[in-house]
Amino acid sequence: MFPTSETLPVWNKNGVVSAVLLHVAVSEPLFYTLHRCFHGDYLFSNYHSLHHSSAVPQAYTAGHATFLEHLMLTLVIGVPIIGSFLIGYGSLSLIYGYVLIFDLLRCLGHSNVEIVPYRMFETIPFLRYIIYTPTYHGLHHAEMGTNYCLFMPLFDALGKTLNTKSWNMHKNKCLESGKNGRVPDFVFLAHVVDMSSSLHAPFVNRSVASLPYYTRIYLIPFLPFSFIAMLLMWAKSKAFLNSFYNIRGRLHQTWVVPRFGFQYFLPFAADGINNKIEEAILRANKLGVKVISLAALNKNEALNGGGTLFVNKHPDLNVRVVHGNTLTAAVILNDIPETVTQVFLTGATSKLGRAIALYLCRKKVRVLMLTMSTERFRNIVKEAPVDCHKYLVQVTKYQAAQDCKTWIVGKWITPREQNFAPSGTHFHQFVVPPILQFRRDCTYGDLAAMRLPEDVEGLGCCEYTMERGVVHACHGGGVVHALEGWTHHEVGAIDVERIDLVWKAALKHGLKPVSSTK
Fold first, then answer.
1. CB 306 within 8 A of CB 351
2. Cβ neighbour number for residue 310 with a 10 Å cutoff
3. What distance in Å separates the CA atoms of residue 394 and residue 516, rounded to the nearest whole number?
4. Helix (H, G, I), strand (E, B), or coil: what is residue 259?
């Protein structure tokens, strides 16, 4: 009766026509009738109530049903497909295409997000009886006694179960969609790390995004799609919303600059990246965002001077631009035991390295600063109090730290270079990516991180490799800036005098340091 896979055509236009006719003539009225039956007392209480148990319908609510209801849907789906095959018009594209469109429309109806323009119905009024909308089906979940149809409101009209509020509510939602958007108080401006981690985004896979990132083997086949997305974003794109959460009535969002990590190291890409960052800052300023915090490479010193470029170019900004590195320095410094009298510092003349060195020397801690630039070393020494100069020591080789058990790594070091550390050394670090944990007789710290306050709400995804609720310290620094209501920009060099102030403010607001010792 049915053709084999060898004889089955890929496409048959007559099959499309027959499937549409069978869908309208059989599947739609069949679903409408069965659906109304499932709203009877017995079937609803014992079966259909599960589907209606979702307080807020989402796309996956479409499949949240009992086994009996799935059998009913199988019958509804099967009629157009089997019917087309019986009359000799079956094809592979009909099987996959019909099922895909069927599931897509059901997910659309439960998505709780209105995307169907109301003007389409005003231009061609009859269309409102041909295709339903999320608003239309949302009314069914809200009031249940109306709008039973599968996809075509025509059958509700014929059965006199069409909710009279459907069209006006749909129009009002469309008209008010641009007015009801809540302006975030704080924005963390991140960027894509690499091809693999891009698949960790919540809009790609929410379940994966809810867990700390690591390379998942089953996602490797999707890397070509990630590569294509990277090319498309490189060609034309702007910063986009990735995630959000709430703290004490304040909306915090994470926006993403559409650039991957490797692109930040391409000299010809620098201007384009800065333009994207600048666009995001100006957009935040226009919206009324109070604080925007720059993540990782978005505040690279060589790229834009840690955000200084944007503040100088736009002196009238109302949004506060923050690099958050003051809290990063505070987390690293407060992770160092008070009994330590000597540390070895790589990346010593970087923004963070400078701040750490100047802070520690004031605490009478000897800092072995690994740098080949005597000029940059001397400039840092000049910033220290005169009586602290002796605690800053320039070294040019790793061998100089053979007796030092506290290493602060701000520049990536190889396993060979790690071998110069004595047994029992702890590696604190602020280098991206983190160094390889090569030494079994040593301990390694993670990147500086803070746990958000316990009253955080709506946090549905993880920030890179951190567990949910834990963010990089620079992110936390922006959060503190917003909660405190500070009105200054935090860009450029770190103000050493503010390190303790920011640390105390973070603890006051309930942020907690994450123990990094392994």
1. yes
2. 21
3. 27
4. strand
CA-closest candidate to residue 253, choices 504, 509, 482:
482
How many whole angstroms separate alpha carbon 335 and alpha carbon 329?
Answer: 10
Strands 426-429 and 240-247 turn out to be unpaired
81-136 pLDDT tens trace: 999 999 999 999 999 999 999 999 999 999 888 888 999 999 999 999 999 999 99
In angstroms, the CA 391 to CA 400 distance is 15
Alpha-carbon span 305 to 110, nearest angstrom: 47
SS3 (DSSP) at 395: strand
Q: What are phi and psi of 171, to 5 degrees?
A: -65, -45
Tell me the one-letter amino acid at 209: A
CA separation for the pair 139, 473 (Å, rounded): 44
SS3 state of residue 260 = strand
Does residue 453 have a cis peptide bond before it, meaning omega lies within 30 degrees of 0? no
- Block residue for tokens 């091809």: 195
Q: Distance between CA atoms of 420 and 44, rounded to whole angstroms? A: 71
Q: Kindly report whether the global pTM for this prediction surpasses the value 0.85.
A: no
251-272: per-residue pLDDT in tens?
A: 999 999 999 999 999 999 999 9
DSSP states of 372-391:
S-HHHHHHHHHHS-GGGGGG
* 23-30 long-range contacts, CB within 8 A, separation 24+: 23/79, 23/80, 24/152, 26/79, 26/80, 26/83, 27/76, 27/77, 27/79, 27/80, 27/150, 28/149, 28/150, 28/151, 28/152, 28/154, 28/155, 29/155, 30/75, 30/76, 30/79
Instruction: Compute the distance between CA of residue 98 and CA of residue 367 in angstroms, rounded to an integer.
Output: 69
Query: Taking the CB of residue 4, how many other CB atoms lie within 10 A of it?
Result: 6
Give CA–CA dist 80/22, Å, rounded.
5
The rounded distance, in Å, linking the Cα atoms of 507 and 501 is 10
Residues in the chain: 518
Closest to 222 measured CA to CA, from 201, 195, 240: 195
Which tens digit of pLDDT belongs to each residue from 14-55? 999 999 999 999 999 999 999 999 999 999 999 999 999 877
Please give the Cα distance from 294 to 478 (Å, whole number): 8
Two tokens at 115? Answer: 């995307």
Region of 153 on the Ramachandran plot (φ > 0 left; ψ -120 to 50 alpha; else beta): alpha
Q: In terms of Cα–Cα distance, which of 445, 430, 436, 442 is closest to 347?
A: 430
